[in-house]
Design goal:
This protein is α/β, with parallel strands linked by helices and 253 residues long. 47% of the residues lie in helices and 15% in strands.
C-alpha cells in the first residue's frame, strides 16, 4: 500500500522555533503546507517569523513559551488547539550547549541548568502534548539529540550526556506510545553551521568538531530540517524509536 503525505492538513508545534535549527524546521514544515506553532521565549523573533510566513500565504502562530514552565506549556498547547484545532506533530528543538570544560570544573548548577532544558523540559513538553495525541490516536514526535550523545566529546560531558538521554528516552517512548498511534524519533546532528551553539564554541573546539566529520564541513540547518520533516510525515509511517544521524559520517553507531 502506498502512503502519501497530506501535509496541508497537519499542525506542528516547534519549540525554540524562532531561530537557528528551529527556524529552519519551521520554514521547511511551512513550505510543505504544515500549519506551525512557533513556540519560543523570544516572542519578538517568533512574531517576525510568523508575519513573514503569513505574508507568503503560510499558516503560523507565534506563542511565547518557556519550556521550563508547566503552565507555559499548557498554554502553548491550548493556544495551538484554539488556533488550529489539533496538534499532529511536536518537534522538541529547544536546548542549550552549556559549558565546555573538564569534569572537575563542572558545577552542580551547570549540570542542573543543562539537564533542566535538554532533558526535564523535553519530558514536560512531550507529556503535555502527547496526551492530546493519544486521545486522537495519531501523532509524531521528533526531538533534537546530537552526535555528541553518541561519541561523548572531551570537555562536553554535561551536554553529551543530556543528548544521550534524549536518545534513550526516545526509544522508551516509542515503545510506550506505539499502541496509541504515536511515533517517536530523534535526530543527532553534528556541528551545525550558523547557529547559536556554534557561536558559543571556542575556535579550537569548532575546528576539532569539523575535523571529525568525514564530509569535512558542518551540517546546514536546512539539512537537519529535511530529516526532521521526513520523520514527521507519513512517508516515515513505519519508523519509530529511531535516531537518525545528520553528521556527515561522524557518528560511529
Amino acid at each position: 500500500m502506498e502512503i502519501t503525505l497530506n501535509a496541508s492538513s497537519r499542525v506542528a508545534i516547534v519549540t525554540g522555533g524562532a531561530a537557528g535549527v528551529g527556524e529552519a524546521i519551521v520554514r521547511k514544515l511551512a513550505a510543505e503546507g504544515v500549519a506551525v506553532a512557533i513556540a519560543d521565549r523570544d516572542i519578538e523573533s517568533a512574531r517576525k517569523l510568523e508575519a513573514e510566513l503569513a505574508g507568503s500565504g503560510r499558516d503560523a502562530l507565534a506563542i511565547h513559551t518557556d519550556v521550563n514552565d508547566g503552565a507555559s506549556l499548557d498554554a502553548m498547547l491550548a493556544q495551538s488547539i484554539a488556533r488550529f484545532g489539533r496538534v499532529d506533530y511536536l518537534v522538541n528543538n529547544a536546548g542549550m550547549l552549556g559549558p565546555i570544560k573538564p569534569l572537575w570544573e563542572c558545577t552542580d548548577e551547570e549540570v542542573d541548568r543543562v539537564y533542566g532544558l535538554n532533558v526535564r523540559a523535553v519530558f514536560a513538553c512531550t507529556r503535555t502534548v502527547v496526551r492530546h495525541m493519544m486521545e486522537r490516536r495519531s501523532g509524531a514526535i521528533v526531538t533534537l539529540a546530537s552526535v555528541a550523545g553518541k561519541d561523548g566529546p572531551k570537555n562536553l560531558s554535561i551536554y553529551a550526556s543530556s543528548k544521550a538521554a534524549v536518545i534513550g528516552f526516545t526509544k522508551s517512548w516509542a515503545k510506550e506510545l506505539a499502541p496509541h498511534g504515536v511515533r517517536v524519533n530523534c535526530v543527532s546532528p553534528s556541528l551545525v553551521e550558523a547557529t547559536g551553539m556554534k557561536s558559543e564554541m571556542p575556535s579550537w573546539f569548532t575546528e576539532d568538531s569539523v575535523g571529525r566529520i568525514p564530509m569535512g564541513r558542518p551540517a546546514l540547518a536546512g539539512e537537519v530540517a529535511n530529516v526532521v520533516h521526513f520523520l514527521l510525515c507519513d512517508e516515515a509511517s513505519f519508523v519509530t524509536g529511531a535516531c537518525y544521524d545528520v553528521s556527515g559520517g561522524r557518528a560511529s553507531y
